[in-house]
Amino acid sequence: MIMELLMYSGGILTLSAIAFFVRNKIVQVLAASLFLVLQWAFNTFLLFNQGVVLMNYFKADSLALIFITVLSITSIATVINSFVYFEKRKDKLLHRSVYLGSLIAFIGCMTGVFIAGNIFVMWILAEATTLCIAILIYHERHIESIEATWKYVFVSTIGLSFSFIGILLLDIAATGFGGNNLLFSKLANQAINIDNALLFQISFLMILIGFSVKMGVFPLHTVCIDAHSVAPSPVSAMISTSLMNVGFVALFRFYFIFAKTSLAGWIDHVLLIVGFLSILVAAVYMIKVKNYKRLIAYSSVEHMGLSAVGIAMGGVGCFAVILHLILHSFTKAGIFFQVAQFIRMFKTKRIYGAGEYFRMNPFGGIVVLMAFFLILGIPPSGMFFTELMIFKAMIAGGYLWLCCIILLLMCFIIWIFGKNILKILFQPVSDSVRAHAEKISFWESVPQFVLLVLALYIGIHPPEIIVTTIHDALIYLPK
């Protein structure tokens, strides 16, 4: 088992180095292709060896398998769209090499976070994703890219420093169950003696603040919005899906630790506050957004805020959250891949500079319209049912008043999001915009369409293996 992990880690480092240092298009394509083969080979190994412990620091539990599989699927579309992005921009070989090397390392680090069983190893890999994504954000090398990159590095590093302090406090408070070698599974399986409740509470707050920068929820969500607005669209897709899933998985594993303690109720209230504030912030800021990438980014903040609320509800709420994030990952990735075509066609990221997309790119327009229904939870979107399950859990938990407020905010978000997306699809544009609009190939929208069809299918008829795996992932939570 150790050999497979070493082969994967060594393969990631080797392919990342090849892609980074070799300035040759054919070699870059081969390195990216071999990386996808390696990613799927490791993913398959984990699927057939569920629960395997690797080197005492990694464990392929059900939660990890869900999000690694989602990452592997979206990685295929990301690599395809990245090469389309290179060709259309006519990027220099140097810039392509830096991008691909960083992307391979980034996906490898996220895979490591998902399977990390040791808290400190998970934190190190989460910090490593900061360095990788910073290089990707900076790819287009303009003033806005520089600003967004240093903001992301600064805030993310500060945030993860808070989480590290929180981890140290957790280590001090739970020395009887691990000392300097804290394992998630060990802490989750044993009843923690909350002698010093205040220390545990401070620890959780610090961890929550730190990983909010990865999950994209209040209070450190702002740098994710800036990163989305300037990063290449394939990178935005990874930030809005798998990177936010990294934050969710990290936070969820810490939630496991406290779920059966006397602090569970307090932590639920903290998550409710964070989730509600995230949805509120998304609704308020979407009013004045003129950049369609920022608009879609705030939509991600809303969905992750709703996920925090679902965690707090427990039981069916947690089940709904994991299924919701699977659907969100495929749908939001498809939207951001399609946004790359908006930028090429209209030469702007402003909503009012775009229009008639459905007429000028019919298949792309169908993809956008399909994504519009899916991401807003309009039936037959599976997100309608997952959101309904979360609201049902809230009402059953005695939070009818909060449920009504969140529903009102979400209706407001649907109106704003829908109004602007429909403008891009159907509002008239000037003859000059129409004349200079780049023609988009039918085939460029195929990867996005496949992701959306997959999200639609899973939402309508979740395969039994997904349902079973989600239930297995929640085995440590109280009923």
Radius of gyration: 21 Å
Major β-sheet strand ordering: 1-2
Through-space gap between termini: 33 Å
Structural class based on helices, strands and sheet pairing = mainly alpha
> How many E-type strands?
2
Strand percent estimate: under 5%
Give the overall pLDDT as a whole number.
Answer: 91
Parts with pLDDT < 50 across at least 5 consecutive residues: none
Run of helices and strands: HHEEHHHHHHHHHHHHHHHHHH
Number of H- or I-type helical stretches: 20
Mass-distribution shape = globular
Percent helix range = over 70%
Tell me about the biggest sheet? 2 strands, antiparallel
Write structural notes for this entry:
The protein contains 20 helices and two strands. Strands 1-2 form a two-stranded antiparallel ribbon. With 479 residues, the protein is mostly helical. It has helices at 2-21, 25-48, 62-89, 93-115, 119-137, 143-173, 184-189, 197-215, 222-230, 233-258, 264-286, 292-313, 316-346, 357-360, 362-375, 382-396, 400-426, 431-436, 446-460, 464-473; strands at 53-54, 58-59. β1 (53-54) and β2 form a beta hairpin. The protein has a domain at 263-479.
